[in-house]
Amino acid sequence: MAKPPSSIQTLEGIMWLGAAASVLGLALGLHRVFSSPGIDSRHVGVGYQAVSGAGQGQSVPTGPPGTPHLLPSSFDRTLVISDPDLSQRFLLALPDLLLTVALGAIAVLLLLMLRSFREGEPFAPPNAWRLAAVGIALLGIACIPHVEAISLKALVSGSPLEDMGVHSGEDFDWALVTGFAVLALAEFFRQGSRLRADTEGLV
Length: 203
Prior knowledge:
By secondary structure, this protein is an alpha+beta fold. The protein has helices spanning 6-34, 86-118, 125-142, 144-156, 173-202; strands at 41-45, 68-72, 77-81, 167-168.
């Protein structure tokens, strides 16, 4: 069996590292959720009409367990929960967990595609659905800020921060564009595999 090109080997190595990093990141994220005190803060954005009070100027959060606070940060604001319980830690970590799972799935799917490239079969039928799955995963990443918005709403519900327009500090618009581009590429691969099958049928 011919040795695969060095570029394919390099890409496979990168995908392996990406998959391993995703597994490690997921394990660490879950550990922070289930450990105490674990995760207790998240970078967020706030509305332009946000009231200047409600804990924004405090350097050390105070209040009973589960109380949300907004602290100034280098970029925007940091939402800090005083002594968060398990459900609050889960809501704080949920966007990162979803992103880690999606990126890990993409790494595995691309690794499987590279294996077919190694065998000289880029238009193998499974590659079309693999690319489609990558596109769907990217569209899922684009939806993470909406999931985070729901999580943040639940975290600040009933607190003075509820009417301050706390929203996601992340922007994954790139994933939306990339996802549709990959879905188009998946259709190209699907047509290519169909054309190859038709050609082989004529031989």
